[in-house]
Amino acid sequence: MKIVKQLLTESDNETADLYKYLALLSVVVAIGLSIYAVIQGQSWDAQSFGIGVGGLLAGVGVAVGLKK
Question: How many domains are contained in the chain?
């Protein structure tokens, strides 16, 4: 639990970082939706998923870097 707290908080390990929570939530939702699509028999493009998640994580990295 300590590792999760360190990953989701700012450098003081006490203040919650909104950008990191949004990134985590977005990745969980994206993975959940892709699993749902596969279960429903719909097509799922892994390359588009990877590009989208990569763009999301790059944007969050920039936001966290600019915040400092």
Answer: 1
Please check whether residue 56 is in contact with residue 23, taking contact to mean a CB–CB distance below 8 angstroms.
yes
Q: Residue 60 belongs to what domain range?
A: 2-67
Average pLDDT score over residue span 22-47: 85
pLDDT of residue 40: 94
Instruction: Give CA–CA dist 12/28, Å, rounded.
Output: 25
* Contact yes or no for 38/51 (Cβ under 8 A): no
From residue 54, alpha-carbon distances to 12, 26, 30, 44, 49 in Å are: 27, 12, 12, 17, 8
DSSP string, 50-64: HHHHHHHHHHHHHHH
| C-alpha to C-alpha distance for 47 and 68, rounded to whole angstroms | 32
